[in-house]
Amino acid sequence: MKRMMNKDWQHLQSLFHEALSLKVEDRAAYLAHKCVEDVALREKVEALIEASEKQEDFLEQPALSLGMRVLSSDSTEELTGQVLGSFKILSLLGNGGMGDVYLAQDAQLGRKVALKFLSAKLVGDQWAKRQFTKEAQAVAMLDHPNICTVYGFEETDGHSFIIMQYVEGERLDQVIQKKELEPSEMLFLAIQIASALSEAHAHGIIHRDIKPSNIMVTANRQLKVLDFGLAKLVKQPSWPSADEPSSNSLQLGFIPGTISYMSPEQLRGQRLDYGTDIFSFGVVFYEMISGKNPFAHDNKAETISSILVSQPPPVRSSAPNIPREFERLLQKCLEKEASERYQSVNELLVELEAIQKLIDGERRRPWYTSVRAAAALTLLLLLIIVSTFIYSYLTRPHAIAILPFANETGDVSLDYLSDGLTENIIGRLSGLSKVRVKAFSMVSGYKGRQLDPQKIGRDLNVDIVVFGKLSGTKDSLSLQTVMINTADGSQLWTDSYKAGGEELFHTEEDVSRQIISKLELWPGRDEDRLSVKPRARNPEAYDQFMLGRYYWRFRDKTNIPKAIDHFQEAIKLDPLYAQAYAGLADSYVLLNTAHYGNILTTREAMEKAEYAANTALELDPNLPEAHTSVGVINFKRHWNWPEAEKAFKRAIEINSNFAPAHYWYSHVLAITGRQREAITESELANSLDPFSPLTNLNYCRSFYYARDNERAAACFERLVKDHPDYKNGQYVQGLVYLSRGMYQDATRIFEKLYAADKSSAGAVLGYTYGVTGRRDDALKVLAEMEALKSDQSDIPPQEFAIIYMGLGDKDRAFAWLKKAADEHFAPLAFIGVDPLFDSIRSDARFADLYRSLKLP
Amino acid sequence: MSSPLEITELLTNWCDGDQTALENLVPLVERELHRLAHSFMNRERPGHILETTALVNEAFIRLVNQDRVRWQNRAHFFGIAGQIMRRVLRNYARDQRRIRRGGGALQVSLSDVAMISPVKLEEVLAIDEALEGLAAIDEQMSRMMEMRYYGGLSVKETAEVLNISTSKVNRDCKFARAWLADAMGIDEADDE
């Protein structure tokens, strides 16, 4: 604005008033006369006069009423600090569809709540208020982890408000803006929205206002949908509403702020059904993927027409890396006609979960690829992934890795405590039905290394890691734990526990509880189970049990007897200690095979194992370890496949995260000829315990039994790369070569194994020599094996059968197989499916043998 | 809430030229206006044209001890109300504009009803800016318009507050309106 001299300003005013007081036709002459030398001044006066004439009403109507309307809706300053009933209002949280939302302290119940005030524009409307109350009551019935709980509705001092759960976190629109989401994360969030909708729809409640700003995401990526059913009140006033003619009082002529998440039928003011939420969900999901709303335009009319007629731009054009299935799913959500969309949100959920499985499958494959990338790291840490269940819907949630607690006491003999605590805490977490826990495979030599939580987060795809370290001396130990958000490296929680002497006894439970509460795993039934989970009745027994498990993990002939000693000691100290019995059973079962030396005969070991397993089960019928042990015994000792299957299934039912149950169940499935299921089950075991060579081998071997040689070969190639020293892996890889007719490769592997240890691979090496015409070499191996057998007698009869098979001596082969069957040699059970035995399969004696295995 | 006595004192002090009294007074008045507006909206069917002058008057009566107040104080009080309204509207209009253009911290939920049409809001902002320009040349004239337009003060009340004659107010208002309209470049009457 041009600054005028005061004199000029006064002059301008007087000219204006003078001219205005004249007749219109005289003004020009007057001004021409007054402004001879100042054309600009004259023009200015003329412009002012023109403006004055044309704008007679301009600024006549005070803006006070506008201001009052604004003030009435913006009650910020009025409410903060006030006390309404038992609520002290702390601060404004945001503006919602119905009005403002405040954070408040409930003095009565001592908790923070969110109060949502019915907008001033609606409070006076009796119909709206009745509706509001009715809806609040309906929503209060909903109980779902993904729905913000409504506690109640209150009217105090002329204010009407809903009392809601206070959800700390970010709105979904903020989450979307902040960073691009991974497809798995999009799915994880989408499934939670759909789950919430499913619950609401089951109660006849339509949300009507699904949009990112109505969705909160907590730090743990738990999602909460807000404003359930409330949106009904803020129906589109500008459009006639067919189903609620009485709502005209709401049609105040104000225009909804944004309509870009509304369904076509909603825009048309038609009667709404569940399909409207499915459409809105589609818009939100689209935005999660692409970062943009597919229909939004600057201009409202264009937005409306876009929703009513336009096809959204293909989402892959802005997010080329998303799975193709997303596009199809979106399309089906965003159909203009509700009848063309998913017919229920459950149908949508099923689809989402199917896609998730697909992504998981792609992601699980990485153990070969990404384990390599993460190899250095994986060797250093033990990984457990806890995932949360959203009700029965398995989702891909936050994963948490609990790294093995470091033993910083300087006393290696306390390793059993740091390892044991880690394992037990994981065990407890995995017992929660709403949690998904990956099992743990201990790799020695990982401890005491500096680990970067953000790198772990990336490498293992986990959101949270828990570190722990044990320090002090045996009598005054302390365990420090830190929970870190891998996204930004921020510390979520840290704590220190006394773990010396008797205190140790409680540490496990205390830490577990803390982790669970920090993860916001919904308490309730699960928590009860956590506390009743069987455990030792005295600290000494607990200590002995931990020692037992520590030695058991070595799984070799020196340590298994030590494990047995400690488990027995634990039982002596606490004769009702179910877990110690289960540990004992697991130890005896391992003594069954020759690999562990001939400490006991097979029969003796199995008898003891069975006794221990049954005792464990009697003491605690809900111990998955005990069921698994019983299953293993039914498998190995009795070849009772239905009973074994029942036991494994029961263990899985109790704890679906218990990897050993899946592992063993896959064996039974393979033996009984259900290869596809066996692959699935071994894959599950493998994903739960991804870094254990044992589960990796089992997974690869499932392809071998299924005669999918290509996948088997690829799988083993990666396996031996990841675990170069794992002899069993090489052994089965050799079998795959045999099965593919790649005799040279098989020979190379078996020769190497045999050279390293005469008690292994002799049979298959002799077999390979036999079938490739190297009869002399085969006989030489046979002679060496026989010498070894008379020496130590720890070569199973089946081995001789294999070498005779290679030599074409079926009679001897069957004789040895018969012997193996009589001795109940467990691995014999696989002959029905093992390609190695194909050459004798057509023989009548094979059928007899098969029957003796009680196989179908 | 502050006592009527305290508010009355602040108001008289301000009328006597104490500027810090005004600073303390504004939030108190604003709070009362909030409350009144809120309860008014609750009482009445929304959409009504508010008898806003009556409302501000109600605020004045509630807030100020009537026994101790001078006749000028009421007009001054209305002047404050006008100032507050101007700021409230400006902030609201700016927020709404930000929201319409997408992005912006204050995200009023999408279904939140826009109470004032965007056209009207743009006008509010334009007037506000033009008033700024006017204040740069003639502050008293700008304040006068603020009282009239935002505070809803009558010509007489305005004259009281500014301690000038009513004819001067009439005259200046006429000029100011023309000047503002010209500054805003309004050609056609499109005021709703």
Descriptive account of the structure:
The complex is a heterodimer of chains A (856) and B (192). Chain A is α+β, with helices and mostly antiparallel strands and 856 residues long. Chain A has 37 helices and 18 strands. Chain A has a six-stranded antiparallel sheet. In chain A, strands 13, 14, 16, 17 and 18 form a five-stranded mixed sheet that branches. The longest helix of chain A is centred in the first third of the chain and has 20 residues. With 192 residues, chain B is mostly helical. Chain B is 72% helix and 1% strand. In chain B, α2 packs across α3, α2 packs across α4 and α5 crosses α8. The longest helix of chain B has 30 residues. Chain B is globular. The interface between A and B is large, with 71 and 76 residues. β10 of chain A pairs antiparallel with β1 of chain B.
Helix content of chain B: over 70%
* Proportion in helices of chain A: 40-55%
Quaternary structure of the protein: heterodimer
Number of strands of chain B: 1
How is the main sheet of chain A built? Answer: 6 strands, antiparallel
Largest sheet: spatial strand order of chain A: 1-2-3-4-6-5
How much strand content do the residues of chain B show? Answer: under 5%
Specify the overall morphology of chain B. globular
Q: What is the string of SSEs of chain B from the N terminus onward?
A: HHHHEHHHH
Structural category of chain A is alpha+beta
Which two chains have the most extensive interface, and how many residues on each? A-B, 71 and 76 residues
Number of helices, where a helix is a run of at least 4 consecutive DSSP H or I residues of chain A: 37
Question: What portion of the residues of chain A fall into strands of 2 or more residues?
Answer: 5-15%
Q: What's the count of strands of chain A?
A: 18
- Rg calc of chain B: 18 Å
